[in-house]
Amino acid sequence: MEEVLNLFEAISPIFMWVILLGLVIFVGFISSVLSFHWKEYSVDAFKSNRMFRGYLFVSGVLLLVMIVALILTQS
Fold first, then answer.
1. How is the chain split into domains, by residue range?
2. Which parts pass through the membrane (predicted)?
3. Enclosing H/E stretch for 6
């Protein structure tokens, strides 16, 4: 466990923020693709809206956890 913590301390914070930005862009792209797919090929509009909201909620929570973890590792 100590080795993992030392590894994170050795990585530059700017590099971690760039990775996080890349993940946000990737999630945004996937969200737009899924939104188009679910709207275009959905049989039940209510079910597709519920799935998209669930996807955005889970993605948002995971991104928020990553941001908080990144901020905490820098302090």
1. 13-74
2. 14-34, 55-73
3. helix 2-10
